[in-house]
Design goal:
Layout: E1 2-6, E2 9-10, H1 12-19, E3 29-31, E4 40-42, H2 62-73, H3 75-85, E5 90-95, H4 101-114, H5 130-139, E6 145-148, H6 154-167, E7 173-180, H7 184-192, E8 216-223, E9 230-238, H8 251-264, E10 273-275, H9 282-296, E11 302-303, H10 306-309, H11 316-329, E12 367-374, E13 378-385
Parallel strand pairs: 5-6, 5-7, 10-11, 10-12
Antiparallel strand pairs: 1-2, 1-8, 3-4, 7-8, 9-13, 12-13
Helix pairs in contact: 2-5, 6-11
Length: 388
């Protein structure tokens, strides 16, 4: 089961329609809300979010409202799992990097102007662990509940952790995924690294110049039961190469892909599509293209969906796994997530096969891979399969 909200929309049907659209580039919009004095392309969620006023102030905030929206889409299935297994046997694992930083920013500006903190603000909103506590409170679960915060690999690792909990017999079902919300802090941080593109990002292009920050949430109900899509394999590694730059050799990135293939019992030739981390930074794209070409050759379709969603940081892995889920399960015409860019290939990169808008797969996709590479060299890969 999948619940999803991002710049492409809210819910599987709306997101799928925008993802596979070939007539118009969707998702990103321009705003200076998070970059005063400069308009930037961002992957802002425009859907109306649930009101959390009925909850304790510590659990209110945009991050948790995004989670609530995604949660509502799969709530019946989760409630059924709780009724079947008991609240102690349902776990919660969420990946995030911002938590309630946005609420703290707003409160700080109020304090500077008024000399006091605003009503309805509590520092605890900023704590990383609130996302898992929020979901557990809403659902009434009493199983393990924790947050993973490893930058851009956070929610991919949350899904891998969910599978491990179930395999270890510590839970029968896990609500796993991620959420991140736009705030000035993250935008300013990436701008300081000169990694933000003013316009829509341009992955794998000779003209690529950085990322667009996005937001959103994606949640999955993970269990040992059969479903339309299964997490067939995963991989995790840590390069410890540099605080923000990937290891140019791609050793750690290649290792997580090999782990995912091995866990799934699949050869590289079985993969029908790869969702790239595809940040449109010079170093990430060079490393990732090298890894893909080395492991898979140049024939497997690959694309970056970040020109559609923005880079949702801690939520990116789950959102992009959600887009892979839609490619496998809600895709009767076998369309591929398109690679939107300016078409100007970088001669220094392998000429990967990049699906154009409207492109379809040679056959119904059965096995797809999603990459997530984070600051500090935290790498993760998820391999999703459909037996349908």
């Amino acid at each position: 089961e999948l619940g999803i909200i991002c710049a492409l929309g809210s819910g599987r049907a709306e997101v799928a329609e925008a993802l596979f659209a070939s007539d118009l580039l969707r998702g990103l919009s321009e705003s200076d809300a998070y970059s005063p004095g400069q308009t930037l392309a961002t992957g802002a969620v425009t859907s109306t979010l649930p009101d959390l006023a009925h909850l304790p102030v510590q659990l209110r905030g945009r991050n948790n409202a995004l989670l609530m929206q995604a949660l509502g889409q799969i709530r019946p299935a989760i409630d059924a799992a709780i009724a079947r297994h008991g609240p102690e046997r349902v776990a919660i694992i969420i990946g995030t990097s911002t938590s309630g930083v946005g609420e703290s920013e707003t409160a700080q500006r109020y304090w500077l102007d008024q000399g006091r903190w605003p009503e309805g603000f509590d520092y605890y909103q900023q704590e990383m662990g609130t996302a898992a506590q929020f979901v557990a409170r809403v659902l009434g679960t009493r199983g393990p509940a924790h947050v993973i915060s490893t930058a851009c690999s956070s929610s991919a690792k949350a899904l891998a952790s969910a599978a491990r909990l179930i395999r270890a017999g510590l839970a029968d079902a896990v609500v796993a995924g991620g959420a991140d919300s736009l705030c000035r802090f993250t935008v300013a941080g990436f701008r300081a690294l000169e990694s933000v593109s003013v316009d829509r990002c341009n992955p794998l292009s000779a003209n690529r110049c950085g990322i667009n920050i996005g937001e959103g949430a994606a949640l999955f109900l993970v269990s040992a039961d059969a479903g339309p899509v299964r997490l067939a394999g995963w991989g995790e590694s840590s390069d410890a190469h540099h605080m923000s730059a990937p290891d140019p050799s791609g050793r750690g990135a290649a290792e997580v892909v090999r782990q995912a293939l091995q866990r799934a019992g699949l050869a590289a030739g079985s993969i029908d599509y790869i969702n790239l981390h595809g940040t449109a930074t010079v170093q990430n794209d060079a490393m990732e293209a090298k890894v893909v070409a080395g492991l898979f050759g140049l024939e497997v379709p690959v694309s970056s969906t970040k020109p559609l969603t923005g880079h949702a940081l801690g939520a990116a892995g789950a959102i992009e796994a959600g887009l892979c889920w839609l490619t496998l399960a809600d895709n009767p015409t076998s369309m591929l997530p398109p690679h939107w860019w300016d078409g100007q290939r970088d001669p220094g990169l392998p000429p990967l096969r990049l699906p154009t808008p409207g492109a379809t797969a040679d056959h119904a996709p059965r096995h797809v891979l999603s990459h997530s590479f984070a600051f500090g060299g935290s790498n993760a890969a998820l391999l999703l399969s459909s037996d349908g």
